[in-house]
Amino acid sequence: MGREIERKFLLAGDGWRGLAEGIEYRQGYLCADKKRTVRVRLAGGRGFLTIKGATAGIGRDEYEYEIPAAEARALLDTLCPQPQIEKKRYTIPYRGHVWEVDEFFGANRGLVLAEIELADENEPFERPDWIGAEVTGDARYYNVLLCRRPYCDWPDTAKD
Question: Taking a C-beta distance cutoff of 8 angstroms, is the pair 123, 132 a contact?
Fold first, then answer.
């Protein structure tokens, strides 16, 4: 069984730009409830099906399988509701860890988030100077909820 432990942050500047080439992502959800999600993703030219359990603390069970890109595209086009997540992901190594910066487009344009995956909930890590406030526990920033309530629909006062 896989386990995902991640923390999520807003950005405090553009110091991350130019540190990595981005890969285009498109993802949607076949199932999206509090106890489980089933996600379909196209990442570059590769397709994935991911099943995630309920979040407990900052971790949750996760199972991910590569599927043919054509099948992922068909699932996104026919079975996953709109809007879907459109983003470019930049993978940036920093002092023994890897940061993933997601720059969102489409219905979530203007939103940029960074996340770090950890081996343990208490694992120490250093933040680059372009990392801002932590939003790990703020459900508004979960990709599955960004499909239901996109960033462009948030009032400006909620975009802090």
Answer: no
With 0.70 as the threshold, say if the pTM is over it: yes
**Those residues with Cβ within 8 angstroms of residue 41's Cβ, 6 or more apart along the chain or in another chain:** 25, 26, 27, 47, 48, 49, 50, 72
Side chain identity at residue 133, one-letter code? A
Q: What is the pLDDT of residues 12-27, one digit of tens each?
A: 999 999 999 999 999 9
Tokens encoding 122: 């208490």
Q: Summarize pLDDT for 114-129 with one digit per residue, the tens.
A: 999 999 999 999 999 9
Domain ranges of the chain: 2-158
Task: Tell me the C-alpha distance between 101 and 86, whole Å.
Answer: 13
Architecture field, domain 2-158: Beta Barrel (2.40)
Active site (catalytic) residues: 29
Token pair listed for 107: 């219905």
